[in-house]
What we know:
The complex is a heterodimer.
Chain A: H1 2-30, H2 41-46, H3 50-63, E1 67-71, H4 72-77, H5 85-90, H6 94-105, E2 110-112, E3 118-122, E4 126-129, H7 130-136, H8 143-146, H9 152-163, E5 167-170, E6 176-181, H10 184-193, E7 196-198, E8 215-220, E9 226-231, E10 237-241, E11 248-250, E12 253-255, H11 269-274, E13 277-280, E14 283-286, E15 292-295, E16 297-304, H12 312-317, E17 322-327, E18 329-331, H13 334-362, H14 367-381, H15 384-397, H16 413-425, H17 427-442, H18 445-453, H19 457-495, H20 500-510, H21 513-541
Antiparallel strand pairs in A: 1-6, 2-3, 3-4, 5-6, 7-12, 8-9, 9-10, 10-11, 13-18, 14-15, 16-17
Helix pairs in contact in A: 1-10, 1-21, 13-14, 13-16, 13-17, 13-19, 14-17, 16-19, 17-19, 19-20, 19-21, 20-21
Chain B: H1 12-16, H2 25-34, H3 37-60, H4 95-130, H5 132-146, H6 150-161, H7 165-191, H8 195-202, H9 207-244, H10 255-262, H11 270-297
Helix pairs in contact in B: 2-11, 3-4, 3-11, 4-5, 4-7, 4-9, 6-7, 7-9, 8-9, 9-10, 9-11, 10-11
Amino acid sequence: xxxxxxxxxxxxxxxxxxxxxxxxxxxxxxxxxxxxxxxxxxxxxxxxxxxxxxxxxxxxxxxxxxxxxxxxxxxxxxxxxxxxxxxxxxxxxxxxxxxxxxxxxxxxxxxxxxxxxxxxxxxxxxxxxxxxxxxxxxxxxxxxxxxxxxxxxxxxxxxxxxxxxxxxxxxxxxxxxxxxxxxxxxxxxxxxxxxxxxxxxxxxxxxxxxxxxxxxxxxxxxxxxxxxxxxxxxxxxxxxxxxxxxxxxxxxxxxxxxxxxxxxxxxxxxxxxxxxxxxxxxxxxxxxxxxxxxxxxxxxxxxxxxxxxxxxxxxxxxxxxxxxxxxxxxxxxxxxxxxxxxxxxxxxxxxxxxxxxxxxxxxxxxxxxxxxxxxxxxxxxxxxxxxxxxxxxxxxxxxxxxxxxxxxxxxxxxxxxxxxxxxxxxxxxxxxxxxxxxxxxxxxxxxxxxxxxxxxxxxxxxxxxxxxxxxxxxxxxxxxxxxxxxxxxxxxxxxxxxxxxxxxxxxxxxxxxxxxxxxxxxxxxxxxxxxxxxxxxxxxxxxxxxxxxxxxxx
Amino acid sequence: xxxxxxxxxxxxxxxxxxxxxxxxxxxxxxxxxxxxxxxxxxxxxxxxxxxxxxxxxxxxxxxxxxxxxxxxxxxxxxxxxxxxxxxxxxxxxxxxxxxxxxxxxxxxxxxxxxxxxxxxxxxxxxxxxxxxxxxxxxxxxxxxxxxxxxxxxxxxxxxxxxxxxxxxxxxxxxxxxxxxxxxxxxxxxxxxxxxxxxxxxxxxxxxxxxxxxxxxxxxxxxxxxxxxxxxxxxxxxxxxxxxxxxxxxxxxxxxxxxxxxxxxxxxxxxxxxxxxxxxxxxxxxxxxxxxxxxxxxxxxxxxxx
Lengths: 554, 305
């Protein structure tokens, strides 16, 4: 049994990674990289400026892992001591500088093409390229030196980049930049190898704070509750307790899915869907310097801030460098919202589906059964969208809001309609199976025997048939979480509920690639785990079921 | 003594004759099907809808996303009339034209996808269920794919492929054939070791012949059940994805996008919102009921009564 569970867990992990890798391959390989800028307002502003737009484009791509981008400054800084930094950044040869000064003195502006060669243009009659500029010069500059686009210092600095497969390009100011496009396997490997981040006391590398202590120690948090703290880690609290579910929180192992872009730009995707939403909530906060203030800061979430960026205000509040904290928000996070609706929806669907299925089986071929069958057929046949809008109309008639945000998280009214719809969407399947299992069991020998013993119909149903028929249903409980999630995509979109389900089409429409992969990972893991739990739960309910075969299978 | 017995000539063809009532499978299927009044009504409705969605767009000249009357203020938000049976929308487009063009797209997608997935699924499923070697490999693949929510797969694929009719057909087909194949596999496994199949195997019948002549006929009613469930579900998926903006592109008429665009008029102009929803529900319900009745009728066990 243990071996079986281990095998299942390994397979589950493999299938999660297989799906995420395929999603990565499809998204990074087939979607044009330019597409992410379509919805970026910053890009629209700077698109006409050639220098700024090129820098912005490649920097964003580098952040997302698509390319390696180096500008002349970085290349020259890293080149070592035998390269003159200023000459290297300038890039041009001394001979060409002379020629350039001569042309500029004549009143021409020297411009550059993207292969780095210079030209001079005036009106439509006058156009000379770098070789002719060097030929026509009266300064006596060396021609061979003058036609070169890179001086010896820069040449030395870029030689290793050329070997690594970088492509050298130039801005129209003549400054060089080097770009290397990552291949799809490289992007996927980079993505997956950065997926799990473990926080250790050696994580922080801060040149401005060389005396940083490196240790993990038990301590007290700001509420005087014991916590495991760390100096040198990214987060100050590795383990802490608070009043929110699941009460014990950890910051040691984190999943890193990259940054969200272009929507929620700059935040990590996990932060976007994991952090609270809505207005900040201010509480009385006791800082570790003894300062007390009303603030929305969440002291448990504090991360390391480099000494060079610590402000005097930070120094007043925080005794250590852990000053980069999240704020407490009023409303639950996207994950929290989706869970809430998922769980409530499952309660509704089982609360209605199971009794209805049992009743149908008990009153087989009576009007209750026929009515149930009509309901099931209508539910299967009608498109879910039509059903949702129909229910929404009924709800509006009795005064329930038609969009979730109009009353928000505070009002119970905003939950009723989405939860009922989410629940009803999966009742039909539940009713069919419950009825089927009950009817099948009712024809079995042990029921005939029980009847022969003189048990009443009610006793047979409640104490014998139900117990046996419920087993496959128990197996399906975790899997119905999956159904609720896929159902939630449309319910959340129709009601504008700020959850993960609505995030998926939003991310797709905004071309937020990392967010799509994050959601793929979360949805896949949830469903894989729920299927596994379902099988394990079944063996608990019915000890006769053995998941591992004993070698006698065909 | 006179011999009262006379010799009777041996009738060779009579020995071959087995006394059995005349039975034709397809005749019985149709007799059974047409005995249900609800099914006949639904068949008429679905045929009417299908014909309407084929013929009406040919004459209406409606092209999605074109908005030829966008500058004509007098054509906006008209109520239902003889000229505009479903009224007009905010761009002066006739909603009646848009609904039938959208219905045609929905029906086209669901029929094409159902055909593709059923054909591929049945072929793969039959071999999968019949061969134990293939079963071990396919089961591993199935376990990986079945773990992932279907909606998620289709949405990610649509994002990668970009919106469009054939992209949607591809995305739906390549994610759902495996489910059909698994369904068929289970059915095949139930009957593959029955005595008549064992007999065929003993006599050396090739696998393909066993599958086509012994197993496929048994699967007909199962297949019709699966098809009758699939067609409405693909209509629902098209509507659902286009509603979310990840399905068809703006150049293709779509019921889902129509519903999404008109969802703001739910209270102010209810007819231009509810009529597309109603048509959408009407096609899938009628096709589902026709399919279910046909599935019942195609099960030979129901022919005895």
